[in-house]
Design a protein that fits this description.
about 60 residues; about 25% strand; mainly beta; two-stranded antiparallel sheet; single chain
Amino acid sequence: ILFNELTPGQIVVVDCEGDPENIDKSKLVFRGADRPDAVPDAVPADLGGTAATGADDAA
């Protein structure tokens, strides 16, 4: 996807171009970006504003 567009030390940033609710007309966009000084080991699971229901929530 990003052949010859990344440089050493960069990360891949994935974004949505268009309305993410309209999957027929939107598309994913990939780009290289410099890695920030502080990068978490894992991203928060609730990035979309809706929490996922897991086994812990069944109680």
